[in-house]
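My convention is simple: the sequence line spells out the residues, with the fold written below as integer tokens. I include a record here:
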Amino acid sequence: MPVWSWILCLVVLAGAAVLALVAYRLRLVRAAGTPMLLRQLPAEADEGWRHGAAHYTDDALVYYRLSSLRPGPTVSLSRRRIEVTGRRGPSGTEVEIMDDDVVVVELTVGRRGQGGMYEIALTPDLAMAFQSWIEARAPRRARRRPAA
């Protein structure tokens, strides 16, 4: 076989591998559930928003970024450490990428934000579901103690 045919085979195989990764990621994102926009703070006024989907587990909010080829979640936020610090509507040029009725929820993760600060943009019904999920967590005093 000539060298150019080996190169062509390698290019076709690499393309198939990339296509398989994209299909896998899209399947993960679609199966994850709740569509949302997420950004880590600090960020410029209207920058850093990433489209994706979130899945609520018993212990964490698991976020899958739409445009990432990473096999697992992009961000995982511990349910026990999430604190809702504010709510607002889209402002400035955020209106261009969000609907008018979207609610931007400001989050702090961990004590004094040591786990990071985030904003998530959700429709009002999904924001209410997120708030209910946060409020339904076990109280901090109810944590199990290790067996002696």
Observations:
- Helices lie at 3-32, 124-135.
- The beta strands are 34-41, 50-56, 60-65, 75-78, 82-88, 103-109, 116-122.
